[in-house]
Automatic annotation (TrEMBL):
Organism: Spirulina subsalsa FACHB-351
PANTHER family, A to Z: ARSENICAL RESISTANCE OPERON REPRESSOR ARSR-RELATED (PTHR43132), HTH-TYPE TRANSCRIPTIONAL REPRESSOR CZRA (PTHR43132:SF6)
Record field: transmembrane: none
Gene3D superfamilies: Winged helix-like DNA-binding domain superfamily/Winged helix DNA-binding domain
Any Pfam family the entry gives: HTH_5
Keywords for this protein: DNA-binding, Transcription, Transcription regulation
NCBIfam families attached to this UniProt entry: HTH_metalloreg
Protein name: Metalloregulator ArsR/SmtB family transcription factor
Domain HTH arsR-type: 33-127
Origin superkingdom: Bacteria
Length: 127
């Protein structure tokens, strides 16, 4: 059962003494995400909501690979892998480098690797 009583749609009121003082709450409010950044982060995470993109990232977290190698490892068509890679490139999660006729993909930077590893570790811990 909630400790909040809704007095009106604009006003929430605690029904028990609350341990945080108003000044502290004001300080906390300074650290809240701005709506625009929150929107950008939500869009970023929504792109990661596709299992095939995550499977691609799991391979690229290990090493740089070309489209044909990714397709074989994932048992997907090259066109399906390319489509997912275009999306991952658009949000700057992966980079590519052409070598002759082949294009090799890798994670864009260590932040992406750290994010991937942190989520994977978190899920392993809660299972």
């Amino acid at each position: 059962m909630s400790n909040l009583k809704i007095a009106s749609t604009d006003d929430l009121e605690c029904d028990i003494p609350h341990p945080l003082e108003t000044e502290h709450l004001a300080e906390l409010g300074q650290g809240v995400l701005e709506p625009e950044k929150a929107q950008r982060m939500a869009e970023f995470f929504s792109f990661l909501g596709d299992p095939n993109r995550l499977r691609i990232l799991s391979l690229l977290a290990q090493e740089e690979l070309c489209v044909c190698d990714l397709a074989i490892a994932l048992t997907m068509s090259e066109s399906a892998v390319s489509h997912q890679l275009r999306t991952l490139r658009a949000i700057r999660l992966v980079r590519y480098e052409k070598r002759g006729r082949k294009v090799f993909y890798r994670l864009a930077d260590h932040h992406i690797l750290n994010l991937y590893q942190a989520v994977a570790e978190h899920l392993d811990e809660i299972d």
